[in-house]
């Protein structure tokens, strides 16, 4: 019985100890609710940041942020500073595409020379046009007596345009002193572009030809333009010039009658 009584007391002691041990862990369980506000707060902050970032992206895509950047130029945002090098790189690329060598390519553009008069006699004969060097430009090309001079060998684009016009009021035609009216009812207006080849002792070679036969009258305003262009390889020392028939009908305005060449490459 003594053993049984002592066992019973031991059992009671063990039960008390277990209960006491369970009470020791209660503070740990009671500390769990303190983490919930921190967790909820973190989630709320993350949600607000996500909403703010979405709104910022939306404003940037709609262009609103760009307007703000222009109005607050002294305080540029980080986003503008980050995108600026990319924009500068794109601008530099465009400049490199359009940039030409410092000295530039050989070129010339000459308007028709004013004043100049051509005789109406022998109007069908082609005559070389004189060009106005003072109001045009020649870069690495020369000009003398109606002829462009090539100073650099290479591949060139040559262009020429000539305009013809005729207008003679009735009072002028009737008051001509002993003169006969000019017949313009069947007029040939032809434009020729020639090249003198230095390697062939200045031999002239026809590069381009265009024109038309016009049937004009004596009383109304008449106008016709001929334009052409051609790419050809030229040698240093070659010359270029333009001949036209009925040169006395030339329109003496630089916007309508001009001649030029541009070097495209070697």
TrEMBL record:
Q: Which residues cross the membrane?
A: 38-61
Q: Where is the THD domain?
A: 106-264
The UniProt GO MF terms for this protein read: cytokine activity; tumor necrosis factor receptor binding
Record's GO cellular component terms: extracellular space; membrane
| Location(s), subcellular | Membrane
Under the heading Gene3D superfamilies, the entry gives: 2.60.120.40
A Gene Ontology biological process annotation? immune response
Note the superkingdom of the native organism. Answer: Eukaryota
Can the keyword Electron transport be found in this entry's annotation?
Answer: no
> What's one Pfam family here?
TNF
Please provide the record's keywords in A-Z order. Cytokine, Membrane, Transmembrane, Transmembrane helix
Main subcellular location of this protein, as a coarse class = membrane
What family is it from?
Answer: Belongs to the tumor necrosis factor family.
Q: What is this protein called?
A: THD domain-containing protein
């Amino acid at each position: 019985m003594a053993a049984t009584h002592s066992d019973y007391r031991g059992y009671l002691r063990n039960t008390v100890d277990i209960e006491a041990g369970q009470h020791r862990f209660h503070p740990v369980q009671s500390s769990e609710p303190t983490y919930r506000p921190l967790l909820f707060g973190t989630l709320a902050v993350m949600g607000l940041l996500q909403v703010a970032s979405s709104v910022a992206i939306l404003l940037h895509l709609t262009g609103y942020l760009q307007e703000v950047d222009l109005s607050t130029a002294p305080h540029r945002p980080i986003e503008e500073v980050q995108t600026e090098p990319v924009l500068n790189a794109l601008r530099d690329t465009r400049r490199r595409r359009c940039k030409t060598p410092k000295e530039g390519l050989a070129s010339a553009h000459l308007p028709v020379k004013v004043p100049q008069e051509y005789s109406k006699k022998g109007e069908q004969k082609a005559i070389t046009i004189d060009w106005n060097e003072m109001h045009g430009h020649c870069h690495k090309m020369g000009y003398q007596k109606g002829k462009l001079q090539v100073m650099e060998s290479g591949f060139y684009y040559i262009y020429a345009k000539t305009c013809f016009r005729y207008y003679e009021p009735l009072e002028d035609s009737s008051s001509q002193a002993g003169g006969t009216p000019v017949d313009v009812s069947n007029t040939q207006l032809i434009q020729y572009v020639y090249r003198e080849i230095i390697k062939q002792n200045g031999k002239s070679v026809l590069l381009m030809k265009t024109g038309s036969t016009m049937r004009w009258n004596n009383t109304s305003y008449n106008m016709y333009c001929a334009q052409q262009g051609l790419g050809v390889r030229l040698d240093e020392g070659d010359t270029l010039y333009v001949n036209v028939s009925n040169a006395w009908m030339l329109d003496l305005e630089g916007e309508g009658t001009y001649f030029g060449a541009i070097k495209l490459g070697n």
